[in-house]
Amino acid sequence: MKKMTFASAVLLTLFACGSSANFNMMSNDEITSYNQSVGTWEQVICREEDHVRSRIPRRRCQTRLAWQQGVIGDVGQLGTASPGKDQIGVD
Known about the structure:
Blueprint (H helix, E strand, L loop, with lengths): L1 H16 L2 H4 L4 H9 L7 E8 L2 E10 H17 L11
Antiparallel strand pairs: 1-2
């Protein structure tokens, strides 16, 4: 039991210092344990996403902060899109 707890603590420390790509390799139980040990914005959320090249959904795990920053970036891109001019005219 002590070995399991020590191993879990080491794994959590390694994953906490690593990139979000490491979260994709963690099991759901490991992510649950990790989420209990960190603050709200550092918690990991996993989603199944479809890709253009494949119909097979892939699991993508990121911190809550990374997901939020992605949403803010998407909204920013929409806000800066140039409306242009209407291309339809009557002659």
